[in-house]
Specification:
It is a single chain. The chain is an all-alpha fold. It is about 75% helix and about 5% strand. A two-stranded antiparallel ribbon has the order 1-2. It is found in: Cell membrane. Its EC number is 2.7.7.41. GO terms for molecular function: nucleotidyltransferase activity.
């Protein structure tokens, strides 16, 4: 079976479950926490497993995963205070468990990276859902899916000019442009349907900035994760999603898109 068919089948199996989690606030929080758990596990085991500090890695995973749960249920109005306490807790644990100077900085950096890049950024879904509703939160998720799909097929068929031969040789300018156009179209159709059938009142002109934001930040999110994989000489962060790699490979662009879409919604 071709890789494209595997990607499509894998997405069709997982997508309905993910979409169903947007029905209620608590299930969304659970979904975010689950994705953070899987993604941070992949990051830690891909980068720090070589040091054989399994207890430290599980400690990191627990802290990073606790952020969306505590933020979504208990500390809704105190995200930065919670982030600071969890960061200090993780660093304190590192000082206790890692006793070698040639290893401690890498542990600091990977823990902080997972806490901010994965847990903090993905958790923007929580206030987005609470303030702006399920329709826009779900759209934000599917914007990334739409862009990745349109960019992939455009790049495969028309891609000639590479964006970065160092970090992602297969990603092309043509793919990004095609992805943006496709995402704008998808966003317009989604908003039109939502306004009719879900009684929303979302301006249709949002489709243009949504497409541009997604195209720009999804691309750099992908390049960011690709740079980490190349440093550690790994093709995929995990293998939980056939055809896509790991969970972090699937959401790398989304982690850059969600905070920016939330900021846009707050101002516009």
């Amino acid at each position: 079976m071709s890789e494209t068919k595997v990607r499509v089948i894998s997405a069709l199996i997982i997508a309905p479950f993910v979409v169903a989690c947007f029905v209620a606030y608590n299930s969304l929080v659970g979904l975010v926490a689950s994705i953070v758990f899987l993604s941070s596990s992949e990051l830690f085991f891909s980068t720090l497993k070589k040091y054989r500090k399994m207890g430290t890695l599980f400690f990191y995973i627990a802290i990073v995963t606790s952020y969306p749960v505590l933020y979504g249920i208990v500390f809704k109005d105190r995200p930065l205070e919670l982030l600071s306490v969890l960061f200090i807790t993780g660093i304190t644990g590192t000082l206790y468990s890692v006793r070698r100077l040639d290893r401690v900085l890498e542990h600091y950096l990977m823990f902080a990276l997972a806490l901010i890049y994965i847990s903090f950024n993905l958790s923007f879904f929580i206030p987005m859902y609470a303030k702006h509703g399920a329709a826009l939160a779900l759209l934000t998720l599917t914007l990334s899916w739409a862009f990745d799909s349109f960019a992939y097929f455009t790049g495969v068929n028309f891609g000639k000019h590479k964006i970065s031969k160092v970090y992602s040789p297969n990603k092309s300018i043509e793919g990004v442009i095609g992805g943006i156009f496709g995402t704008v179209l998808y966003s317009f159709i989604y908003l039109w349907i939502a306004n009719i059938f879900v009684s929303e009142n979302i301006p249709l002109w949002y489709s243009l900035p949504f497409g541009i934001i997604t195209g720009f930040f999804d691309t750099f999110g992908d390049l960011f994760e690709s740079s980490i994989k190349r440093v550690y000489s790994v093709k995929h962060m995990g293998s939980i999603m056939p055809g896509h790699g790991g969970m972090l490979d699937r959401i790398d662009g989304l982690l850059f898109v969600v905070p920016i879409i939330y900021i846009f919604l707050e101002y516009f």
